[in-house]
Write a structure and sequence with these properties.
Length: about 120
């Protein structure tokens, strides 16, 4: 895999990770969202007023463009599994920014993901 192709994949992964964190931030004040016909519009209105929702959606949109550029250079059997790096990024970011737990099991899983991505990137 070339450096430009790898860079596109990682940019796409990072944009996707930022999108996930922004979407999580957009629902921090809503609590659990229970959709029903009676509250669908109020919930939608509340979410649409959240700037983090728009940041997340924007990052997703840009990540799709970057991902298409990456897929034009790399086999999907290599590129798609590399999305798992997003889990690694999000796990540490959620720990640092949101106070989410990084349990021993999660850390072992992160290590396995890193090992797998390393093997894929070198194949």
């Amino acid at each position: 895999m070339t450096l430009p192709a790898f860079s596109l994949i990682m940019i796409g992964v990072l944009l996707n990770a930022v999108a996930q964190l922004a979407l999580k931030a957009s629902v921090k004040d809503t609590g659990v969202i229970e959709l029903s016909t009676g509250n669908a519009l109020p919930v939608a209105g509340q979410l649409m007023a959240e700037p983090w929702l728009w940041v997340g959606l924007f990052c997703y949109g840009i990540s799709v463009i970057v991902w298409i550029l990456a897929l034009s250079r790399v086999d999907v059997t290599i590129a798609y599994p590399m999305l798992s790096v997003g889990y690694v990024v999000n796990a540490f970011a959620a720990y640092a920014l949101l106070g989410e737990a990084l349990t021993p099991g999660r850390l072992v899983g992160i290590g396995i993901i890193i090992l797998g991505v390393t093997v894929l990137a070198r194949s």
